[in-house]
Amino acid sequence: MGQIILNVVGLFSMILLGYGMKRMGLLSKADGSILSKIILNVTLPAAIILNLAQMEVQASALSLILIAVVITIGQIVIAYWMTRKDSNPLQQFAMYCGSGFNIGNFAIPFAQSFYPLGIPLISLFDMGNSIMLAGGTTVLIEYILKKRTTFEPGKILLNLLRSPTFTVYLVMLIVRSIDWQLPTAFLGLVQPIGLANTFLSMFMIGLFLDFRLPKHTTKTVINILVLRLSCFSCFIYCRYRL
């Protein structure tokens, strides 16, 4: 328990370091955008390769991919219902912010610091999450708001393959399904890049952290928090009761 607390303190210290450097004027939120590109295109894919290099693919665990998709769809529908009387921009804001999970940039680095054995399962869930974040969420929201009337699976698939995170997940899932071991030399090259993901992700969150909130968005933000906390409570209940 002491080690877990120490790891948590270390991670939040990284966030505070990023926030502090922004407040001191040494860095800005724009620098966070640059870091985000580095993380999504370089360090996060490398971390995924490292985390899944020894994964044993089990049919039952693959259901986590579908579960993530279903949960995200449910979040979008609930967010739409909660903001049904609001304007379209606020509805869009609620549906985008109220759905999906920040797994690659937060949950994986967080869990990796004290429970690395759970990373393969979290990664499978994140694969389903990536399907929605890389295009599925946008398509569904546009259908709900009647901004899209045609279904183009080719474009959706292309958008998914343009996502480095989803593509690496897919490749690693195939590689481990056929039980192919990645060369040790390759993993040795990827390791220092992947290990940098935790610090860069936490530091980036600190750069984006902002406690100021426009008054007219307070209700929407509260609704989003209620939605997310409700989902979290359901997860905890299902984990320990079902």
Automatic annotation (TrEMBL):
InterPro entries: Mem_transp_PIN-like
GO biological process: transmembrane transport
Xref: Pfam families: Mem_trans
Sequence intervals crossing the membrane: 6-22, 34-53, 59-81, 93-115, 127-145, 157-178, 184-209
Location in or out of the cell: Membrane
Membrane topology classification: Multi-pass membrane protein
UniProt KW keywords: Cell membrane, Membrane, Transmembrane, Transmembrane helix, Transport
GO cellular component labels: membrane
Name of the protein this chain belongs to: Uncharacterized protein
Organism annotation: Candidatus Enterococcus testudinis
